Amino acid sequence: MITTLAVENYRSLRRLVIEIGSLTVVTGANGSGKSNLYRALRLLSDAGRNGAVAALAREGGLESTLWAGPEQGARRGRAVQGTVRSSSVSLKLGFAGDDLGYAVDFGLPVGGEARSAFNLDPEIKSEAVWGGPILRPATLLAERHGPVARVRGDDGWEHVPYRLQAFDSVLAEVADLDLLMIRERIRSWRFYDHLRTDAEAPARMAQIGTRTPVLGHDGADLAAALQTIIEIGDADALDKAVSDAFPGSAVQVAQIGGGRLELQLRQHGLLRPLSGAELSDGTLRYLLLVAALLTPRPPALLVLNEPETSLHPDLLEPLAELVSTAAGKTQLVLVSHARPLVAALAERGASVVELVKELGETRVEGYGPLDGPAWTWPKR
């Protein structure tokens, strides 16, 4: 389980180190930096798939994603003026748990890259993998500086006998058991922020169905995912989640020929079930969240971004109960600005991280300069 998340110089996150629990709710006003923290987690996930450089390029390149304020941060009562940068351009991301930690440092290309067609691509300047919650020389398991990497073996340090490309992560390019463990853990992370509920959403229509223990990122395979929960997952939890939200209702999945499956919702008082095409946006979104949270194949980390979108306020309490149930099987981070949902989750034991923005910089409400978990970045 992740216990610490660290970000430096990513958009409004000039320097943020926060503690993460089994169920963590990130909240704050609009513009406080919640989405930036969510994106930072996604970038860490991309690192495990060797896609963080490409993801940064899609955001406009490193210079478009860097903290735009002064290097040392703005101070109350002082005008913010342009200054000459005294240190290297650096965007850092990292996390740690009780057993393993990982950090990566991105910078700008040097020498001759201005002529490249890929000049929006940042370079990976350094990476580190260590054992335990804090990076120390004694806990270091693998490190990379520029193109050179080394791993700690039974007989001491062993240098990787080839040079890494600036756009390739050590997690993907070096064969080592510790690197494999942390890579596969990161690759199991799951994010949901684009579940479609519009009139043309694929989840509203019959789809070819196969066993689906993991709901797709857009929810197109909702019917198959729900049927998989019914057959090999927690069908009782599914029934409870639906009846809590819609009393007297039950989900069913119809086979309509050709291997296609169709979502249906049977409601008390109606002579026939409603098809996915007839459901409201809020009802469909809730069922998508049910399928995501009750997955028979829980990830190491599940992250939801503003799941309350389109939901009626009456559905927030059932959603909180559903999230709390899911957090018993997987670590869960939920980003939300819905106060009733945040309060309901806090009552169920969630850790609440409230973000505020001061002079353009995202901070944690109530954190002083020395608060937060200990953290050390790898050197370049």
From TrEMBL:
**Name of a matching Pfam family:** AAA_15
What species does this protein belong to? Nonomuraea soli
* Family annotation (InterPro entries): AAA_GajA/Old/RecF-like, ATPase_AAA_core, P-loop_NTPase, RecF-like
GO terms classed as biological process: DNA synthesis involved in DNA repair; double-strand break repair; SOS response
**MF terms (GO), sorted A to Z:** ATP binding; ATP hydrolysis activity
- SUPFAM superfamilies in alphabetical order: P-loop containing nucleoside triphosphate hydrolases
Q: Which domain of life is it from?
A: Bacteria
Key words, A-Z: DNA damage, SOS response
Q: Identify this protein by name.
A: Putative ATPase
Q: Where are the transmembrane segments?
A: none
Domain Endonuclease GajA/Old nuclease/RecF-like AAA: residue ranges:
1-46
- UniProt domain ATPase AAA-type core: residue ranges: 242-338
Asked if the Swiss-Prot or TrEMBL record annotates the protein with the keyword DNA damage, the reply is yes
